[in-house]
Specification:
Layout (H helix, E strand, L loop, with lengths): L1 H28 L10 H6 L3 H25 L10
Helix pairs in contact: 1-3
Length: 83
């Protein structure tokens, strides 16, 4: 069961990195990268950089809350000797 919890945390961290990368791509792309004819499909798929950054912050907060709850409930134990 602890393995599944750790796997969920690793997947959350991967999703955080993916959203950070997508936000970076949107930032570099800029708002006016489609100067040609824009179809309705490209407008629906075009999301602002803040969408991905907000999702990243939400996933980071979720990961922290999950770790705090697991620590307080005794599900996982912290390392008493960090060196």
């Amino acid at each position: 069961m602890v393995f599944i919890f750790k796997l969920v945390l690793v997947l959350l961290l991967l999703f955080i990195l993916i959203n950070l990368g997508r936000a970076m791509f949107e930032m570099v792309k800029g708002p006016n990268s489609n100067d040609e004819e824009e179809s309705d499909d490209s407008l629906e798929d075009d999301k602002p950089m803040s969408f991905y950054l907000g999702r990243r912050v939400f996933l980071s907060a979720l990961a922290v809350v999950l770790m705090v709850v697991a620590l307080l409930s005794g599900f996982i134990e912290p390392n008493v000797r960090p060196y």
